[in-house]
Write a structure and sequence with these properties.
Elements (H helix, E strand, L loop, with lengths): L1 E8 L3 H16 L4 E9 L3 H11 L3 E3 L2 H6 L5 E4 L6 H10 L3 E4 L7 H14 L3 E3 L7 H11 L6 E9 L16 H4 L3 H16 L3 E9 L4 E3 L5 E3 L5 E8 L4 E7 L8 E8 L2 E6 L5 E6 L10 E4 L22 H16 L7 H20 L3 E2 L3
Helix pairs in contact: 1-9, 4-5, 5-10, 8-10
Bound molecules: alpha-L-sorbopyranose.
């Protein structure tokens, strides 16, 4: 089998999820390349060494510039904090390397546009890691929508709840700094729900939002109080170009909820509901069902005919969160081999970022903001 040499930047949560995906993908899917874990890059030499040892990365670099400059790397995978996405991606694209970038794609839409331009100029394959598109239940929802099963979509409602900031003593991390992340809960979590909305409903027309920082200062590891500059929670409503309406809430203050991402779509012919904490299931209601038993049915998305599932276990043997990344890498490798665009790509990352930026702008101006066409 042909090989593709991967260089990863970032060794934490996402670095681990992506490493696992490169290792597992050729064991389960018929992929065109076997990923070779060539080099890992991180700022802290000690944790970098442990990360490389754990996952079998063959070499290490402590500066991303060096990683990107290496001739023995074909694909750069960006799992760093948001402020570094654009410079790494643009440098990698200029060197002709394929790029898989974590979400949100960038700090703002201007940066995202630069990434898209650089990727298009160099002709590389590019992708943004909106992994929830690759949950089989979401991919099935997309198929059902395309088959007209729920008709004209009227409503898309999304909540993304986490609670790791409820404790005011929770220490300050980079995600609290708008200069490092671009935004807080919004960029981290609304990025996913906005992407799912674009995927399942279509392009946004306008948004109106409100953002809040509930805890204004947090203790650093040395006990100093540092100002929080990134939102703890963001609400917004939206109009879509096709006439649908949307509502979105992303918060890290949803006491008791750990990673609760729920979307609801109501259409003229039916409805769909997905909840990440029950990710192997898709709720479906059809107006064409008849009789007293009409109601929401719970489809267990583990049949061989369901998206991605054939590669895994027999029906009813559920898969987990990490599989979404394996599916993503599988599609990315296929796109590279076939020289075909893969979605969500940097165009999708840029369009998503335009929506995120417009919500932030609207929460300041307290007015509706249109999304540039
Ligand atoms: C943290 O809020 C986080 O890990 C996000 O960064 C991920 O994208 C999301 O999938 C889970 O929560």
């Amino acid at each position: 089998m042909r090989e593709i040499n991967v260089g990863i930047v970032g060794t934490k949560f996402m670095g681990r999820a992506h490493s696992n995906a490169y290792i597992d993908v050729p064991h389960f899917f018929d992929v065109p390349f076997k990923p070779v874990l060539k080099a890992a890059c991180g700022r802290d030499a000690e944790s970098l060494k442990a990360f490389a040892r754990n996952f079998g990365w063959q070499s290490t670099e402590t500066a991303w510039e060096k990683l990107v400059a290496r001739d023995d790397i074909d694909l750069i995978d960006i799992c760093t904090s948001n402020v570094t996405h654009m410079p790494i991606a643009v440098a990698a694209a200029k060197k002709g390397k394929h790029v898989l970038c974590e979400k949100p794609i960038a700090m703002n839409a201007d940066e995202a546009r630069r990434m898209l331009d650089a990727a298009q100029e160099s002709g590389i394959t590019h992708m943004v890691a909106f992994n929830y598109r690759r949950a089989p239940a979401i991919a099935l929802a997309k198929q059902l929508i395309e088959q007209g099963k729920i008709g004209t979509i009227r409503h898309f409602n999304a909540v993304y709840y986490q609670d790791w900031l409820v404790d005011p003593g929770f220490p300050y991390v980079w995600r609290h700094d708008v200069k490092e992340g671009g935004s807080g809960a919004h960029g981290d979590m609304s990025a996913h729900t906005v992407d799912l909305a674009r995927y399942l409903v279509g392009e946004f027309e306008a948004v109106n939002g409100v953002q809040e920082i509930f805890v204004k200062e947090r203790p650093s590891t040395d006990g100093k109080m540092l100002p929080v500059t990134a939102d703890d929670a963001t609400y917004f409503i939206s109009r879509f170009q096709n006439g649908a309406l949307g509502s979105f809430l992303s918060t890290r203050f949803a006491t008791g909820r750990k990673n609760y991402l729920r979307i609801e779509l109501f259409g003229s012919e039916g409805a769909l509901v997905f909840n990440l904490e029950r990710m192997n299931e898709l709720e479906y209601y059809s107006r064409t069902d008849e009789g007293l038993a009409q109601g929401f049915r719970n489809v267990i998305v583990t049949e061989n005919k369901h998206p991605y599932i054939n590669a895994w276990w027999p029906p009813g043997h559920i898969i987990g969160w990490e599989h979404t990344f394996i599916h993503e890498v599988k599609d990315f490798l296929q796109g590279i081999a076939e020289k075909k665009p893969v979605t969500p790509d940097f165009f999708d990352g840029w369009r998503c970022q335009q929506v995120l930026d417009a919500v932030t702008e609207s929460s300041v101006s307290q007015k509706w903001v249109s999304i540039a066409v």
